[in-house]
Design a protein that fits this description.
This protein has 542 residues and is mainly β. It has two domains: 88 residues, no CATH class; 408 residues, Porin, CATH 2.40.160. It has five helices and 24 strands. It starts with a helix and ends with a strand. 35% of the residues are buried.
Amino acid sequence: MRCLCVGLARLRALGCVALVSGVLTPVLFADSPPPAPKFIRFGSALAEDDSPVEPPFDQSPMIGYDRETVQRIIREELEAEKTRTQQQAAPGTVAAGKASAVGSDREMKARWENGFVAETNDKAFRIHIGGRLEFDNSWFTQDGNLLLGGSPTQEMLDGTLFRRARLRTDGRLWEYIDFACEVNFANIQDVSNVENSTVQVGSVGLTDFYVTFREVPYVGNIRMGHMQAPVSLERYSSSNAWYYMERSSMFDAFYNPNDYQNGIVAFDSYLDDCVTLAASAAWINKSTVQSFGFGADEGTYGFGGRATALPIYNDEGRSLVHVGAGYFHQALVDDRFSIASRPLLRAGAGGNDTPNLIFTGTYFTPNGVGIANLEAAWVQGPFSLSSEWAVAQVSDVFEQSDFTSPRGDATYQAAYIEGGLFITPDDQRRYDKKTGTWTRTNPVRSAFGTHRENCQSGSGLGAIQLVTRYTYLDLVDGEPTLTPTSGGAQAGRQHDVTLGVNWYLNSQTWFMVNYVATHIDSVVPGADGDINGVGGRLHLDF
């Protein structure tokens, strides 16, 4: 208390000195300009309640400087000194007034963001722990003359399966290194139409398993590991963002045999993310690079690239036009190629449970296979429309592995067009500008919850969407037509029409119902026919 009184007495004395100086100075120094003010540092310029404290002044002349200006300057100086002191005391500080070193902040704060996420304040470290579950059930009817899997006795069986069952960890290290480690517990979809696969059905394998180096000079981003090549809007978009139980027959015939690859991808976005470019180089083919991520075979490489653009992008994606093109060339294991397609609804454990509908048979070429792709999409409020066309070209085809019995060249085509309409207010299809792909649906009003934007209480419906799609696959064209010489399914053309309803309870949980009508035009006389199926899916990811 004695110290406080003495301090206050000193403050009053200094104030008197300043007052006397202000009165006498006009008389003694009337013709002299006012000098800059000088201040005595006295600790803090703020009281405990953040109200200003009367600052003491020295004996310097104060003509022309009002009390508010003096208080403001003192306050600014003290705040600057406080900032310098905090920076010097902070761990990992490089120098006073400069940003702290990357990694100096190790304290993480957790939150829920489509899964458990923990992140440091400077975002240099981030971890997400999650997974994915897709539970499917399907029912079928078919014409009896179809040669499914090449057999007149093969039938599409009603059944159930876990289409995807994955656990995932991804995140960021030291600000510029991203990673993803995802384990797949449902490898059925990875092996069911690969002739010589040695992976046992139900084996645990890898999907996304890679490291990404961000903001690399002159390149952008470099990803290395086990991943998907950047080809096709449909293929490069996550299944968390897709509107149908299966991707189109284009994916199954042209891209799925090399769905995941070991290699490297360079990618970046430009012009306010309205243009994306990506290129990849990888080891390819499931029979050599298996779901476990290992494999060896001489010369089985693949190279590809994709470019996209947004000539129109307004209102945070509620109105956009997307265009893109891609190309992928791959060598062939043992110079063998074969192309097949399965139904757009699945059940059971693959193989006989989900047979090929059309199949070229196995042929040989020393030149590899090239696949070119064009893509386009349009979003206007709740309505969306997208389409792709792809052509696979194989030259110098032979029936035998010693390149005897030449059959000429083969050219196969595939396409789809699909549309969707949200019937719940304000919902829309979401788009990721950084990668030029679709991203997950995020309902404006989650079911049985509250309005996310203005916190109005009440129970919402979630997002409800109607979808339809037509897909076409041609495995006939060639010089001459390539059809199996013995056994196996038969080449032909596949037409599919899908009608569906999606109900998104929230951004992570939804129900999906698809009706698929498939027609097969077979090269085998009398083997044409139809398949009708209804499937339902429960999807959850976190």
